[in-house]
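Attaching the record inline, Q. Sequence:
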Amino acid sequence: MGPDLTNLVSHTGPLTLADWNLVATNLGGQARRSFEDLQAELAFRLDPVAQEFDLDQTVSEVREDARAVRRLATLLRTDPNSLQAQLQATHGRTLLGNYVSQLRSESATALAEEEDDEEVGVDVAEKSPGRAERSARDDASPAMSLGELLRPALAVIDAGSGWPTKGTLTVDSQTFDVVIYARRIGGSARGRHLERRFQNPAQGTPIIDDPNRHELLLGIWQEQGPGRAVIVAFDPYRRMGRTTRFSMFMPLSLLEEAADTGFATHESTSGEALYAFRPENIDRYVQAMLSEGIWTTSKAKAAEHQATPTTTTAATRSVAHSSQLNIRPQVGMYAAFARLNYKPWFALAEFIDNSIQSFLSNQQRLADAGHAGPLVIDVNIDDNEIAITDRAGGIAWVDFPRAFSPATPPTDATGLSEFGLGMKAAACWFAKKWTVRTSALGEPVQRTVIFNIPAIMRSGAEVLPIETTTARESDHFTVVTLTDLRVRPKGRTLAKIKDHLQSIYRVLMNEGIVKLRVTTAGSVEELSYDSPKLLDAPYYKTRNASSRLWRQTFDVDFGDRRVTGWAGILEKGSHVHAGFSVFRRRRLIEGSVGEAYKPSALFGTPNSFASQRVIGEMFVEGFDVSHTKDGIQWGGYEDELLDKIWRQINSPDFPLLDQANGYRARKTANQLPKDFGANALADASEAIADASTSKAISEVAATPPAADVEQVSPSPEPKAVLQQREHVLVLPWEGSSIRVVLQLVQDQAADFFVAAVAKSATSEEVLTVRLNLDHRFSIAFINDNEQALQPILRILAALALSERMARKSGISHTSIVRSGANKILNALSVEHS
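Structure, as predicted:
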């Protein structure tokens, strides 16, 4: 976007400064005073990293989340392991926005140095022996492959070098003179195993506009064998006359979807439509070009039709409306589904549930046909379209009436599909228009049904046509495409969708039943679930005993209902990851990321240690779920169930809940993260400097001092003030001001709490408040719980200011209270069983 924004957002661009400021504010940004500032503002708002991540968060927050690191690596187009290493080597307090900017700057410099010879049009083949021969051979082979792949539709007249090839293309009795620029599709060259790349030849041969022929820019993908060959059509007109190297990247999922289903489309990040298809479906691409007005039978007439796209007829498509789908009398229910209370991830899960159930129901037949699994499901989310593709059993013809009729349960309701609502409800919630294209295992037919809900409601239609075409005998798939979206997932919602889906299907993914891939912004990511690390430590009341892994199973049997599972203690506490995940039929129902099931009978109050540390999985049998599958209906069993689980996981032999609440990780200051306590210092400083707090302190400080004021010698300096662990603020004081310094220090010999008074070089009074993170009390009670620092720092600051006020008021020996408290805290640092 850089060069494009520079040209667009300028004095010579199409919009005024005021218009661009309106665009920026609509995107959530700020109005700017110059085009240059607006370029930076818009680049930031359009940056996919900024849309999914808070750039004001710190590096330390990101690197602790493996899922966030993987997603950031995808957006930055780098290897996750390398990125994790770089993040670990970066100071934790570095803002993510600054880190990303620096990384991109370094990458751009390296890329410019690496590809400079290609971009300026130098013949790369001359740079190394044998490269010219390899390049010529690679260019020629696509021409020969095309002749074989597209026979008899393509008749090659002049193969040339393959860049270009001249020929005639015959589709539906229409003949088109074509000139084809073709190359093979290979690896991405960016270390991304789920991405593929098309690149033009190195010799600098441009695509030339032939007035008598239609240009085709085609990539050939044969990575998985000739039987799964795919052709990808790009837009040649965007690249007319270009002599420099160019690359087009595409997700592997697009190619595999085309190989599995015959035809697939994808919109690149630059807005270009890519068409991927099996060779026998070249006619579908030509029909797309005709319907968009880009092609006519004679290219000379094409310009006349560019502005008036033609409508493709049923005859042109070679599609037979051989049957109809009756949607009466439930048609009114489709419009009502839009008002359901879904969340995007649970709505998407409805489609995935159907796919998995189709796979499980046809597992043996699929295995006999050579498709034992895992089932691959692709979820593609674009700005204007959502598509879900599976390679399961497809929708058999006998199941069509039930599959598209609302609230008609399947004959076997013991699987993931049980209400007969999921696909229809979720599709209507997401979009006004949706399409299902499917081919059932054993039926060499592809059927397509289009649901245009507003049109159906206007016309009162009671039947829908089923478009039928021939398919390969081996085809078995379903593609659900949602368009004219009501709900458009964007920004951080996309990251949440991935987090939730990998949590919902973690069991089925870990068992090798299903593989989920999600494509957003042109980048594909295969989802995976990382099991949390559990605590391996002695029981806190018997610290000299052997260490043990804190994980305990449970089994509660009610006869017709049963709940099994396990509970454990997280090695590192986390409000987001703690809690129970509740599964039914191996699919998560309740307790996904950040939404865990935390009943107070087991977890106590929201701020308890158990609510941060206890994690587990519950597998329920015999309980019903809500129709949106996001909650268990306990039916009066919940209290008894929780009581039985409590007894099994908190027995005298294995007191897991007691350990969760009582255990303290013994961390010295050296073992803490570099930014530990920085947020607490900022919070305490902000609270003290607040206008109302500052006013209250001034009023108390205004008390007239007595004549006999105790003089206090400064406290000795600590051995070390930890990096970035100091905040300085200035408070009004007796008509002047006092400087307050809050410090986190590291000194094993010092007291827990120090309040020191001194004069600066400018005679300004300085009150230093120190909390020692290497004191025994900190190691026992604070260093494993950073949240505890916030209230403690406020209390210590209040005590230090009160001590200063008391001294100014004439009270002698005020420090004796602090001195005594430090001595008592030494004794209280030892936990007693």
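The CA atoms of residues 321 and 467 lie 5 Å apart. The radius of gyration is 33 Å.

More tomorrow.
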